[in-house]
Fold this sequence. Notes:
This is Peptide chain release factor 1. Pfam families: baeRF_family2 (PF18844). The protein is an alpha+beta fold. The chain is built from ten helices and 16 strands. The radius of gyration is 26 Å and the shape is flat.
Amino acid sequence: xxxxxxxxxxxxxxxxxxxxxxxxxxxxxxxxxxxxxxxxxxxxxxxxxxxxxxxxxxxxxxxxxxxxxxxxxxxxxxxxxxxxxxxxxxxxxxxxxxxxxxxxxxxxxxxxxxxxxxxxxxxxxxxxxxxxxxxxxxxxxxxxxxxxxxxxxxxxxxxxxxxxxxxxxxxxxxxxxxxxxxxxxxxxxxxxxxxxxxxxxxxxxxxxxxxxxxxxxxxxxxxxxxxxxxxxxxxxxxxxxxxxxxxxxxxxxxxxxxxxxxxxxxxxxxxxxxxxxxxxxxxxxxxxxxxxxxxxxxxxxxxxxxxxxxxxxxxxxxxxxxxxxxxxxxxxxxxxxxxxxxxxxxxx
Length: 348
């Protein structure tokens, strides 16, 4: 069984409100035949959070009188249909969770100026560290006083210090990014110095993003960086899918062909643009036992244990075969039936 709950803690009566919302979810689970031991196990884990206040949500999955998954959602799941907030079925209903969960991205942010940079090191988990990198501080500002020849020498000295300071910052960024396995480097600050630092990053230039503005909050910056990394990864997968589709070898689309590839364990990355309520699928006990046609599943020797939302059945199959899931926004790619896949090896 799967439950999605608004557990926001930003109101004076938050605890009471959460309890009332949980009672409603509990009642809907019980109406669907949920066993009481598993419902109680879920109840015991409600309100387990990293953050103690603010807007948030929680997903809990229970089976056999145990909670097998519980995680915090960055926003309350109030937009979910009622049937998704409390679901009892043969497989967990995790597509709403995957749409909402925040993938932790390790990144380094540098706010650059002519004398150095303020670094913010943001790991996937753990404490955010702020470090100041100071270079040479004098002279770093150009002046226009004195004779022209002296001005030129002074300006050259200033620009040389800018360069040395940029080298120091770039070196520190490269070292720290390598140690932490950074997936992105966010650069802000003075335009000229920022461009100079970027040019000195070598291969790490591929990781650089430039946020719209300076961010004081690690969480706000994390959101922007995560979105940029996600968009880049989606674009890469879409490009690969289109390339393989053109060759007619390692890509399929549409429900029949894609589910066939899923059952064979061929799928490396599945692309999903379909609605989360794209009908139900028949499922068996094994993760790849799923089909829209009952006969297709029985022909494989599988016993049908029930029906599940298509999105839930597909997510279980991908987890069971170690395949990736890429959820794309409408308009990103046109897929027959809203589903397609890049394959591990050519389709037969």
